[in-house]
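User: Predict the complex with acetyl coenzyme *A.
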Amino acid sequence: MYTRILGTGGYLPQTVRTNADLEKMVDTSDEWIVERTGIRERRIAGPDDTAATMGAKAAAIAIKTAGLEPSQIGAVICATTSSKNAFPSSACEIAGILGISDVPAFDVAAACAGFSYAYAMAHSMILSSMCDNVLVVGADLMAEACDPSDRTTIILFGDGAGAVVLGKSDEQGTLAVKLSSDPSFAPLLKLPFPSRDGSDAGHSYLYMKGNDVFRHAVVVLSRLVTQTLEMGGISPSDLDFLVPHQANLRIIAATARRLGLDMSQVIVTLDRQGNTSSASVPLALDEGIRSGRIKRGDMLLLESFGGGFAWGSALVRY
Ligand code: ACO
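Assistant: Here is the predicted structure with acetyl coenzyme *A placed in the model:
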């Protein structure tokens, strides 16, 4: 028994925040942002957008693309660290919006690596015969978690949601999944909940020591992609596309170089979407498929890295 991606979907809020908009908010420039990150614009959630509403929109498309009805979904997993509520989970809310009930539904928190974790959980649930089709959503609103006056973070993040339906299959789709973490780097990348004593006036913002995170991300991802290919028993030349987490174009380019891939074999969305945290890999995958670049049978390497540190990957024949 194997697992295979049956369908994908994505949702982006309408409001666009360009680098020119950011020049009015903080001391920065379009030139600096493009050169250091590759980002030109990102989408910002509207007042009615939540991880669950955005996730449900992406999920509805993924289920339809898979050729399934919501009643055929056997579990809902939502990767997010920006749920509106501690509970109900965004996964339960998504299930409610889509009319899915009486199935397992839960959130997974692994910051920007969340989608890889959720995908691996779905894969394991199917292989253990718990269910046949799992809805895997990545949805985050990280832009509002950034201090609007902090030029080191506010330029990076955007909002959105992506979704995948992973299903039981006779054909091998998922060849390998790998997850890991290293808590010793926790202080470099944090998003605390508001403090209980009210000392932060109910606000807490994302903190990132960007250049340290950058250096570790490059090293970890380089090791991760090599390990994942070894687990799957394939060589880099067998890969058709890298579908990376979209944090920084220089990190993505370094990972592609490690694999000997040309940038034409890398799905890049961050120029228009920024870093959408848990949503970035499924959004990139969905765009790659919808644009016709990724075709059935292509060999894909999905990878992500984020706070924790936590990281993960999936080697997939689409
Ligand atoms: N505009 C202009 N100047 C800026 C800006 C800005 N927006 N931000 C920082 N600078 C300045 C700094 O103050 C510093 O100035 P100084 O030299 O006078 O002190 C200079 O630019 C260089 O700063 P660095 O932080 O060293 O810049 P770097 O090249 O590392 O780029 C960045 C910063 C883009 C954040 C990069 O480090 C990065 O992408 N890091 C990794 C992000 C990541 O992968 N995160 C993980 C996922 S996120 C999650 O899990 C939620």
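Residues 28, 32-33, 36-37, 111-112, 151-152, 155, 189, 210-211, 213-214, 217, 247-248, 251, 275, 277, 305-307 surround acetyl coenzyme *A (CB under 6 Å).
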